[in-house]
Write a structure and sequence with these properties.
Rossmann fold, binds nicotinamide-adenine-dinucleotide, Dihydrodipicolinate Reductase, domain 2, globular, 11 helices, 15 strands, alpha/beta, 322 residues, six-stranded parallel beta sheet, 2 domains, seven-stranded mixed beta sheet, 27% strand
């Protein structure tokens, strides 16, 4: 097999980006797409000349299909992943792996039983910036790690787009919780989180949070996760990572990636990294080349545990020991 036949299930915001990423990969053939929304399904199928299916179950019967990307809402990941595994199709599932430990474990078990690869879409692992940060840590450039701080801020309209179906910790938290665990190279042992309550929330969800995380190797971390940037913010995001070691420190700013555009209507800080294309390429390559997935179901489960611990901590006001 020198080309992988892939289907995308869920064609919303990130499903569209997976379609365009897969379309540029030489070793991928985007052959099928599925969505319950007939209009988005028809448009996407026409754009990519892919076979349209009204649901995952029908798409999984597409002749010659090898693998799927699952980009449905979080709480539907289990159903689509288990079905895909039962049909013997490899799985790249968007973060979070699932919204509960039980669902996460069921997905991992189904993939094992089906003998298929299971990869979780932690895009930061494919960002050159985060890869360089981790390399600096692994190469000992910073000495022994002391602390790590991550910030992820999205625009204020994001929670309205998702209509309260999840809070900011389940939406953005998995990215940084995973990146911190991946870079620190140690498991989280204690999670303590607080959410701002100073501004009324339209939905019963947390919107601005600080979470401190103590890792087993003694490193202390803090993640500021929120979605209060104004929609006119020039980058639409404020993503940062600061690492301190006993021999050096590192600062990463994904808003300023070395390309800044200034016009009469304002400034723009476009993203120049192609993290999602690299993520999808890694998925395709690991299947075709019979390699291990670069991000496992176990990694996905670890991030889910961290998010759930942070949510429990906000609820109880107490640190949660993992
Ligand atoms: N990696 C990232 O940076 C990133 C960014 C955004 C979203 N995500 C994740 O991707 C997933 C999707 O998020 P989104 O923002 O694209 O959501 P979205 O609401 O924009 O899109 C979801 C799509 O799934 C479709 N859908 C719903 N139920 C379905 C079903 N049973 N079968 C087939 N299709 C179905 C909807 O019609 C919609 O088109 C979530 O898990 C989210 O956390 C990841």
């Amino acid at each position: 097999m020198d080309e992988l036949n892939i289907g995308v299930i869920g064609l919303g915001a990130i499903g569209q980006k997976h379609c365009s990423a897969l379309a540029v990969l030489e070793r991928a053939n985007l052959c099928a797409v599925a969505d319950v929304d007939a209009s988005i399904l028809a448009t996407t199928a026409a754009q990519y000349k892919a076979a349209p299916y009204a649901n995952a179950e029908e798409l999984l019967k597409h002749p010659g299909l090898d693998a799927v990307v699952i980009a449905t809402p979080d709480h539907l990941h289990r159903e689509a992943c288990v079905l895909a595994a039962q049909h013997g199709k490899h799985i790249l599932v968007e973060k979070p792996l699932a919204t509960t430990i039980d669902d996460s474990q069921a997905i991992i078990a189904a993939a094992e039983a089906g003998g298929v690869k299971l990869m979780v879409g932690f895009t930061l692992r494919f960002s050159l910036h985060y890869q360089q940060a981790r390399k600096a840590v692994i190469d000992g450039v910073l000495g022994s790690l002391v602390s790590i701080f991550a910030r992820r801020q999205n625009v204020i309209s994001q929670s309205d787009r998702l209509k309260g179906r999840c809070g900011v910790l389940m939406f953005l938290g998995p990215h940084d919780f995973d990146a911190m665990r991946w870079i620190v190279g140690s498991e989280p042992v204690t999670v303590y989180s607080q959410a701002a309550t100073s501004v009324p929330s339209v939905y019963p969800i947390e919107n601005e949070t600080f979470t401190t995380i103590k890792f087993a190797n003694g490193v202390v971390g803090c993640a500021q996760i929120g979605w209060y940037l104004q929609d006119k913010h020039p980058a639409g995001k404020d993503f940062k990572l600061d690492i301190v070691g006993d021999k050096g420190s590192l600062n990463l700013d994904q808003m300023r990636q070395g390309l800044e555009i200034y016009t009469a209507t304002g400034a723009k800080f476009p993203s120049v990294s192609a993290g999602l294309v690299d993520e999808d390429r890694a998925y395709v390559d690991c299947i075709l080349d019979h390699k291990d997935v670069p991000v496992s179901g176990k990694d996905g489960l670890a991030a889910v545990r961290m998010v759930l611990a942070a949510l429990r901590s906000i609820e109880t006001g107490q640190p949660v020991h993992l």
